[in-house]
């Protein structure tokens, strides 16, 4: 892997190659937005994409045909529309079949329920939103329907289960219902925020002497926090569902145990007390945990703001190190990631609080094993490496830190201003400040952070704190000149940076030590412009520089500047100027 190359996602167009985290996020989101826009256009205007002109025609490379081919009112046409996921068209055709007195088979009706319970009445919701946008605002306010008393929908479409929605209406008029019908309704109700109705449907399923499948039980277990308020009541209901599974001879899977642990995350101390027994039960049934299993477990034990030392993270890591994971649970790669930024990077914060670099190395080795790295998207990958690098700066030798830094940027992550501050502090602790000019030129400027006040203040403070060899001082002065240019230039959409008194003083000191008297005096004049007072050290450094370069005129101007400020050090400066410079009568 080339450490100087950007992520493969950005190598199509070198001109657009991002320079920092914000740009990489913007470009990756723009690409995904473009793909979504293309899918929307194809979905909304399929008539423009039905001509196949490729020769030879290779079906697997052609766009999927999403326009219904079967005309008329028939069950075959209904099946086709269900297969094409045409929600509104499927419901309309089903109603037409009922009006014509044509019976619809149980299998087809269940397929329609599957479609409705997965997508909801999404098309109707979109139509309502379009109508709301077209109507005048005052009429829209009068006709807006009241807010429904269901929990927040668990899906991303925004649809919330409504009374007598199409799924409920079709379910009620079904002449025959089987276990599949009930299970589909239960899962749809939980998905779209009607957990209480789902539990009532489950009770009805039991009364009809049907058996639920494992997916329905998994869904019901995840809905427990919305059904019970007290922690102990939630755990009792989870146990009740598990007992029902055993009674109905339903074999649990990894999603079942993940659902239990996910619910225990919202059970406080009760969850911490029983979560380990859940893991033991998984092992007894010879069920391999997924990444989400371990993440739920860590979240249960490290949920508090103040993390207490625990061996759980070490024990979990011992298990993770042995395996290369494959996705088994949606939570493995969507909302919570063991390696990435799951809920504030719980495990990595614990590594930092424990200052355990060995634990972090083990975690990193586990992340790089097999295909585990594929669980991290761009944002999580950047967050992971950023936290890892901060820990390296805190705990490792500077040679090791710089080795990791050169290998990680920009191929693995773009350093944040916080990372660069950590790097500067590590260089300071190791007394390797001579590296600062290369960090400034190759990273801070390249990443677009040359207008960050906090970063520039820290950089100038470190460079001006002590005297260094001449070659280093010249490099420091060049950095100071770049910072001066950053303050003076202002783009069309950028306000000019304001000088602080400390930053001005640091720049004067750096120019003075490099023998650049005229540049130093130019910066000294800025003190009057921004109504700031230079420190005694700044004026002493400038006077020393003026002596070394034999510039008595600047020395006299410095004394005048000090006098205009009414500084107590004015007599001392005057005395030094008279003793150290050969002044003419006029100058005296």
Description:
With 588 residues, this protein is mainly alpha-helical. 62% of the residues lie in helices and 0% in strands. It has helices at 21-44, 75-83, 87-99, 106-119, 122-134, 137-143, 166-173, 179-191, 195-207, 214-222, 224-227, 231-247, 254-264, 268-284, 291-301, 312-320, 330-333, 346-354, 357-368, 378-395, 398-408, 417-429, 436-444, 453-464, 470-488, 501-513, 517-529, 536-548, 552-565, 570-580. Helix 24 packs antiparallel against helix 25 (470-488). The longest helix has 24 residues, at 21-44. The protein starts with 20 loop residues before the first helix and ends in an 8-residue tail after the last helix. Residues 136-150 and 335-349 have low confidence and may be disordered.
Q: Strands, helices and their partners?
A:
Elements: H1 21-44, H2 75-83, H3 87-99, H4 106-119, H5 122-134, H6 137-143, H7 166-173, H8 179-191, H9 195-207, H10 214-222, H11 224-227, H12 231-247, H13 254-264, H14 268-284, H15 291-301, H16 312-320, H17 330-333, H18 346-354, H19 357-368, H20 378-395, H21 398-408, H22 417-429, H23 436-444, H24 453-464, H25 470-488, H26 501-513, H27 517-529, H28 536-548, H29 552-565, H30 570-580
Structural class: mainly alpha
Number of strands: 0
Low-confidence stretches: 136-150, 335-349
Count of alpha/pi helices: 30
Rg (CA only) = 34 Å
The SSE order reads: HHHHHHHHHHHHHHHHHHHHHHHHHHHHHH
Distance between the termini: 67 Å
Give me the oligomer status: single chain
Q: What would the principal axes of the Cα set say about the shape?
A: elongated
Helix content: 55-70%
Whole-number mean pLDDT:
83
Beta-strand portion reads under 5%
Major β-sheet, in short?
Answer: none
Keywords: Mitochondrion, Repeat, Ribonucleoprotein, Ribosomal protein, RNA-binding, rRNA-binding, Transit peptide, Translation regulation
InterPro entries: PPR_rpt, PTCD3, Rib_mS39_PPR, TPR-like_helical_dom_sf
Region (Disordered): 126-151
Subcellular location: Mitochondrion
């Amino acid at each position: 892997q080339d450490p100087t190359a950007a992520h493969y996602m950005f190598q199509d167009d070198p001109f657009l190659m991002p320079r920092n985290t914000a740009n990489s996020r913007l470009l990756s989101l723009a690409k995904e937005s473009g793909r979504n826009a293309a899918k929307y256009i194809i979905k909304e205007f399929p008539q423009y994409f039905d001509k196949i002109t490729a020769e030879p025609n290779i079906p697997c490379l052609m766009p999927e045909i999403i326009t219904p081919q079967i005309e008329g009112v028939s069950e075959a046409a209904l099946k086709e529309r269900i297969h094409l996921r045409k929600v509104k068209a499927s419901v309309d055709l089903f109603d037409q079949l009922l009006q014509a007195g044509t019976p619809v088979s149980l299998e087809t009706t269940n397929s329609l329920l599957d479609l409705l319970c997965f997508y909801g009445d999404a098309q109707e919701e979109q139509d309502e939103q379009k109508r709301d946008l077209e109507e005048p605002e005052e009429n829209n306010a009068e006709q807006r329907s009241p807010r429904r008393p269901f929990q927040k929908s668990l899906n991303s479409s925004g649809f919330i289960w409504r009374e007598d929605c199409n799924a409920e209406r079709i379910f009620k008029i079904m002449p025959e219902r089987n276990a599949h019908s009930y299970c589909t309704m239960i899962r749809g109700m939980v998905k779209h925020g009607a957990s209480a109705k789902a539990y009532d449907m489950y009770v009805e399923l039991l009364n009809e002497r049907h058996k639920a499948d494992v997916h329905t039980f998994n869904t019901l277990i995840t809905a427990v926090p919305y059904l019970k308020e007290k922690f102990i009541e939630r755990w009792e209901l989870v146990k009740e569902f598990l007992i029902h599974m055993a009674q109905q001879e339903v074999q649990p899977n990894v999603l079942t145990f993940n659902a239990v642990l996910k619910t225990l995350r919202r059970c406080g101390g009760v969850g911490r007390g029983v979560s380990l027994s859940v893991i033991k039960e998984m092992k007894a049934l010879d069920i391999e945990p997924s990444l989400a299993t371990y993440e739920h477990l860590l979240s249960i034990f490290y949920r508090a703001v103040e993390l207490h030392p625990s061996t759980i993270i070490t024990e979990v890591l011992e298990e993770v190190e042995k395996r290369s994971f494959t996705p088994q649970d949606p939570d493995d790669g969507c909302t919570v990631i063991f390696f990435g930024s799951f809920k504030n990077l719980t495990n990595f914060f614990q590594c930092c609080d424990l200052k355990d670099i060995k634990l972090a190395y083990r975690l990193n080795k586990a992340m790089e094993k097999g295909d585990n790295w594929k669980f991290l998207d761009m944002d999580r990958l950047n967050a992971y490496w950023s936290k890892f690098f901060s820990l390296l700066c805190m705990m490792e030798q500077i040679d090791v830190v710089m080795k990791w830094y050169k290998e990680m940027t920009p191929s693995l992550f773009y350093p944040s201003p916080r990372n660069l501050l950590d790097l500067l502090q590590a260089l300071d602790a190791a007394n390797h400040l001579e590296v600062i000019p290369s960090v400034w030129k190759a990273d801070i400027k390249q990443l677009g952070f040359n207008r960050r006040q906090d970063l520039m203040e820290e950089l100038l403070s470190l460079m001006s704190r002590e005297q260094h060899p001449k070659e280093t001082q010249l490099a420091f002065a060049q950095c100071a000149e770049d910072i001066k240019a950053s303050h003076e230039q202002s783009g069309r959409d950028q306000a000019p940076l304001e000088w602080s008194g400390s930053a001005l003083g640091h720049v004067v000191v750096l120019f003075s030590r490099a023998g650049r008297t005229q540049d130093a005096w130019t910066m000294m004049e800025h003190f009057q412009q921004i109504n700031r007072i230079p420190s005694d050290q700044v004026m002493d450094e400038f006077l020393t520089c003026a002596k070394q370069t034999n510039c008595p005129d600047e020395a006299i101007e410095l004394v005048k500047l000090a006098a205009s400020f009414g500084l107590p050090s004015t007599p001392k400066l005057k005395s030094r100027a008279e003793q150290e410079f050969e002044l003419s009568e006029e100058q005296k």
